[in-house]
Amino acid sequence: MKLIIFAGPPTCGKTTVIRQVIKRMIAKELKPSYLKIDVLFADEDETIHKEFGIPTKKIYSGELCPDHCNVVVLDEAVEWAQKSGSDFLFVETAGLCLRCSPYVENSLGIVVLEATSGMNLPRKIGPMLTLADISVITKIDLISQAEREVFRYRVLESAKGIRVVESNALYGIGIDPIVTQIIKSPEVEFPMFLRGNPPVGTCTICVGKKEIGSKNHFGVLRTLEQEIFYVGE
């Protein structure tokens, strides 16, 4: 089975891209399944199951970062999709942490970016973009040709060698090259490993300490003037 992970900021069009991909894969008599990881609310799994009749599942990360949630449940998700008889598992993450990368080795990582979100967006994304295989730029019909060229340049500037696909996903434009790459992607292998190192996040804030100021905390910290340092055993 093949694992495809879709990441990207909220409202960038991930689900619309996925729906168009699923439609084409079913037309090719391939069997996808779908997992949605979100924080508080999601109904994409229900609408996709209703539209296409494929196995779907969702999980809420709650107080856990959705990309961290992805890491800790992904092995079970792959096993669930395999038992469902799927050829592909599409995972859509909430993508709220720009320092995290949800992609794993022996899979395909797709980042979806909204062209209307500003020319500097590719410079702000971090590993969610730089470790992806494909960058899908959506809503291209809402900006000028000059803005499209600048946006594309900055994607390639931030992630050298990434494949860029411009798409108007609402009308299915630019979807076929994505499907081709998905079909060519490698099969997932156990044990699975993240592609990149996750960001440091060991601190008392993560476990609920509410006081303001570095003097009140332990773990990985920084101050206004001092770079990252560690306090504690």
Question: What does this protein structure show overall?
Answer:
The chain has 233 residues and is α/β, with parallel strands linked by helices. The protein folds into two domains: 2-184, Rossmann fold; 200-233, no CATH class. 31% of the residues lie in helices and 19% in strands. The chain is built from seven helices and nine strands. A seven-stranded parallel beta sheet has the order 3-2-4-1-5-6-7, sandwiched between helices. A hairpin with a 7-residue loop joins strand 8 and strand 9 (229-231). The chain is globular and about 60 Å long. It starts with a strand and ends with a strand. The mean pLDDT is 91.
Largest sheet: 7 strands, parallel
- If you compute it from the alpha carbons, what radius of gyration comes out, rounded to the nearest whole angstrom? 19 Å
- The CATH H-level superfamily of the largest domain is P-loop containing nucleotide triphosphate hydrolases
Portion in beta strands: 15-25%
Helix-strand sequence:
EHEHEHEEHHEHEHEE
Mass-distribution shape? globular
What is the typical, i.e. mean, pLDDT? 91
Counted by DSSP, the helix tally is: 7
C-alpha termini separation: 43 Å
CATH fold group of the largest domain: Rossmann fold
Class derived from helix and strand content: alpha/beta
Strand tally, please? 9
Strand neighbour order, sheet with most strands: 3-2-4-1-5-6-7
Helix content: 25-40%
